[in-house]
Design a protein that fits this description.
CATH architecture of chain A: Roll
Number of helices of chain B: 11
Structural class of chain A: mainly beta
CATH architecture of the largest domain in chain B: Alpha-Beta Complex
Structural class of chain B: alpha/beta
CATH topology of chain A: SH3 type barrels
CATH superfamily of the largest domain in chain B: Nitrile hydratase alpha /Thiocyanate hydrolase gamma
Strand content of chain A: 35-45%
CATH class of chain A: Mainly Beta
Number of strands of chain A: 5
Number of helices of chain A: 2
CATH topology of the largest domain in chain B: Nitrile Hydratase, Chain A
Shape of chain B: globular
CATH class of the largest domain in chain B: Alpha Beta
Number of domains of chain B: 2
Radius of gyration of chain B: 22 Å
Largest sheet of chain A: 5 strands, antiparallel
Helix content of chain B: 25-40%
Order of helices and strands of chain A: EEHEHEE
Oligomer: heterodimer
Largest interface: A-B, 26 and 22 residues
Order of helices and strands of chain B: HHHHHEEHHHHEEHH
Strand order of the largest sheet of chain B: 1-4
Amino acid sequence: MPAKGHAPYARGDRVRILDLDKPGHVRTPIYVRNKVGVIDYYCGRFENPEERAYGRVGRDRIPLYRVRLNQRDLWPDYTGAEGDTLVLEIYDHWLRPA
Amino acid sequence: MTADHSDHDHAHDHADHDHAHEGHSHIGKHPTREDNDVELTPGEAKFLALKSILIEKGLITADEIRQRHEFNDLGTPHQGARMIAKAWVDPAFKARMLRDGKAAALELGIDVTEADLMVIENTPQTHNLIVCTLCSCYPRSLLGEPPAWYVSKAYRSRAVREPRKVLREFGLVVPESVDVQVHDSNADLRYIVLPLRPAGTDGMSEEQLAALISRDCLVGAALPGQPSGAKA
């Protein structure tokens, strides 16, 4: 079960990528923080790399999603096609329904 | 890679060499390789220290490290090309590969050990490009070591910001009617691109098809070559 109260996201759900401002081995790049995208794919559950990186292995597995963002939402001055997108992997605790 | 891997097989085979003719031309001889006796970088020194501690403590043996180097070297872009060529000729394999890339690789005897493998299919409407902005994640056990450009800061920052411009610099112009989809390999999965099978390749064998697929095609930085004799 996910750590938070909400049900796991479904494909197409709109989500905001949070800016948790956590130090350490975080896998959420700065350039997508506070941006809104949609759930593209559920990858399964994985150990949290923010824990694993410090030797804390074998802890709870957390849901990991592939989130799709429009390039124009990421970069206001983006000049490519309107349909250009970027997809990346975001752990559940970095997401909130949007 | 590191100083402990310097090779010693180059400089000491002069027994049959006539040293009376020291000034003579070396045309036709292989060039002398520089001795690898430069000072260690701090990273190399740390690596060697850590390695010797792990061996001394009995946590790992030198032979295990050597075996791992050998295993790492099994990954080559040709393995990925083989997998794509099979998917082009075998729709059932392709379907399995899109569902579970790691299991499909194993069918071909390729053991993808580092992570789950996701195969991203190019379509007439969408071109896909892979990057790892945070470090240099790459399906090494399938494709081998990534090219230098893949790990460069320039590629890692620009591929997500201006992918079409980056692709143009690779010589690949994606028309505006085709969407560019960038995949940041930032966490637990690894990716390869399944390119579209080029026109004019009907009846080619898997081996012939694999020869059209370069490493860069598997990252999305290029398209498969045309069969020789075909029009571009």
